[in-house]
Specification:
This protein has about 290 residues and is of the alpha+beta class. It is about 50% helix and about 10% strand. The chain has helices spanning about 15-20, 65-75, 80-90, 95-100, 110-120, 125-140, 165, 170-180, 180-195, 200-205, 215-220, 235-245, 250-260, 265-280, 280-290, and strands at about 5, 30, 40-45, 45-55, 55-60. Strands 1-5-4-3-2 form a five-stranded antiparallel β-sheet, with helices on one face. Helix 12 packs across helix 15 (about 280-290). The structure holds a DNA duplex (13 and 12 nucleotides).
DNA sequence: ACCCAGGTGGCTT
DNA sequence: AAGCCACATGGG
């Protein structure tokens, strides 16, 4: 049974930017990739949905979750115009990035899904991360009841696997999904998650196998909504080198500086910058190459 | 055949 | 603390 939820008068939201800025990996365009205002299909936890925008109304056709759940998922009670303004006031050179990624929102994602997703992200690229996660969900996640009705072809949406199902997985079977050396991290981390419960701090996250400083920061930002977290990946290294002259290897220095410079908005700043430099086309790439 | 991608763990200086 | 290197995989 599909329920339709309409949230009116939403601001600062662009579905393409929200779903393709690199914070999540399982939402995909449903159809008409060229069409303006396209619809996305995916899942948040065990709730499948098709998401679209009609003017300033956010339309959620879903198998579950009430209005409050989706308001929280899309972070709709946060004023992103105010955030962008404050970022630009504090750091004028970020304006191109906030302009390009205007409409990004930091989703409130499921913690376990975020942990596994960003363990898979290490030394990997986004298209392959998406493939890996889809394979993982098809093999270890259950079909979301009623999700067949969301898609014209009647294909179901799979829920993200539970910690129990991944903890019970055979490492060889995980590797067969092309998860590579990350297979053992996934199993061990799932076991520990089951045993110890949800990690709630940086220290606890760093104790998980396959979670280092960068992945921990992604989990804090995307899974725990700690907006002061500033993940430093290979792209952000280039950016911080370009903007402030940091040595490429000095990830810790970059992170410390950014957290001081942007404060509680560091996570937003990181996401606008990452998305702009990665997807913003020739203009952003030129800026990166100009000084080095 | 190399280099890179939302890096980490482990070992050696 | 800092510097290597292996690790799986697939695309350019």
């Amino acid at each position: 049974m599909i329920k339709k939820i309409v949230i009116e008068k939403v601001r600062d939201i662009d579905l393409t930017h929200v779903f393709e800025c690199g914070q999540c990996f399982r939402w995909v365009p449903l159809e008409d990739p060229e069409e303006d205002g396209r619809r996305y299909i995916g899942a948040a936890g065990d709730k499948a949905a098709v998401i679209s925008l009609d003017g300033d109304s956010l339309i959620i056709e879903t198998t579950g979750g009430d209005r409050d759940f989706w308001r929280d998922y899309f972070d709709l009670d946060t004023d992103y115009s105010a955030i962008k303004d404050e970022l630009v006031r504090n750091e004028p050179s970020i304006k191109a990035a906030t302009g390009y990624g205007s409409g990004i929102r930091i989703l409130n994602q499921d913690l376990f899904e975020t942990i596994i997703s960003f363990i898979i992200s290490q030394n990997n690229n986004i298209p392959r991360i998406r493939k890996n996660l889809e394979a993982l969900c098809r093999s270890y996640g259950s079909i979301i009841e009623g999700s067949e009705a969301l898609r014209p072809d009647g294909e179901p949406v799979y829920a993200f696997p539970s910690a129990a199902s991944l903890a019970a997985a055979d490492v060889g079977d995980l590797a067969a999904l092309r998860l590579g050396y990350r297979s053992k991290y996934i199993k061990k981390t799932s076991e520990r998650f089951l045993e110890k419960g949800c990690p709630a701090s940086r220290e606890e996250l760093l104790q998980l196998e396959g979670v280092g400083p960068k992945v921990a920061n992604c989990i804090m930002l995307f899974g725990l909504h700690d907006t002061g977290a500033f993940p430093v990946d290979t792209w952000v290294k280039h950016i911080m080198n370009d903007m402030y002259g940091f040595e490429e290897k000095d990830a810790a220095g970059m992170q410390a500086f950014a957290c001081g410079h942007f404060g509680r908005l560091a996570g937003y700043a990181q996401q606008y910058l990452f998305y702009y430099y990665r997807d913003g086309g020739p203009a952003s790439q030129k800026m990166l190459n100009s000084s080095h």
